[in-house]
């Protein structure tokens, strides 16, 4: 995630009750409302509010929350993959209706006042169920039997929305486009892809959302890749991930500068490494954007207190200050996923992080104050990035002598 530092502001209350979160407060801006209307997703929040109002018990409310959350995820996937009426003139590949609709639902849930009463803990549980179900995190399912490869891919929400509230994230769009799809790998094998999307929030990562989602599935997959938006005009296969949070504000305008918080910190390494076949990926023709094997990191050398950029990876005994993918949540998801791989003993499982190009608006539509929410070049760029991620995954999932999974 390519970012520049701005001042953080205090968050809304975690449980909120009647106070919208920082993310939810952006809903009332013109662009999010236009995105919801032009995608046909603008009716979901009022429907959800009505269903919640009819719930006469916590159990019924929880069923309602999961039904709408999973329904939102499925509707966004179906729209992206052409199985649902477009419901407006936004292109199907757009990930933003999912993001803004989820926030519209969480805002309704946060302000809901049931007749039977609800505790802060209960509301927090409902918000968690809505988050997980609307992100595809609890619906990852692979077909049984042999002969099919299993691929797990993750994306992210849009971010830096105070800079430009129109922003889309091509990694989230890729997750919607590929969820539940089949592809042919570079060696002709058939593979099933399952996906999930993660928030751009430090607190969720500290609470273990990545591990909770990935842990049940890593032992059964043949490949995993976390995906996020990186630098303009290029893909990067990130060779090394660092155990450091660099402080850039998240979507709640919260900042964290610290060692990545994980379970069992006494055994936490400063660095983890990709096991994706980076040489094969960078050598393959996968699309119009160049793909690089990014080996650079920023470290504190052993015994030193001044950061040093190392183009060829970390030196022995050094302390992480940035992985190849930086020091934001894209680096952190890569660090967490590969650390989980290692702690589960899946040493031969291919996995790592792919940074996509920045999704750019077309010439003449770059000013967030005057620009439109979409344009033909913007759509073309997103479609090309999605197609190239799919091609990269197809190359990565082919058998590689160095990274062959035991079940392959």
Query: How many extended strands?
Result: 14
Query: Taking strands numbered 1, 2, ... along the chain, how are they ordered across the largest sheet?
Result: 2-3-1-4-14-5-10
Give average pLDDT, whole number. Answer: 93
Question: Percentage of helical residues?
Answer: 25-40%
Count helical runs: 12
Shape: globular
Structural class by secondary-structure content: alpha/beta
Oligomeric state of the chains present here: single chain
Q: β content, as a range?
A: 15-25%
Structure description:
- It is globular and about 60 Å long.
- It is built from twelve helices and 14 strands.
- A seven-stranded mixed beta sheet has the order 2-3-1-4-14-5-10, with helices on both faces. A three-stranded antiparallel beta sheet has the order 12-11-13, with no helix packed on it. A two-stranded antiparallel sheet has the order 6-9.
- Helix 4 packs antiparallel against helix 5, helix 5 runs antiparallel to helix 6 and helix 7 packs across helix 12.
- The chain has 408 residues and is of the alpha/beta class.
- 34% of the residues lie in helices and 16% in strands.
- The relative contact order is 0.15.
- Strand 11 and strand 12 form a beta hairpin.
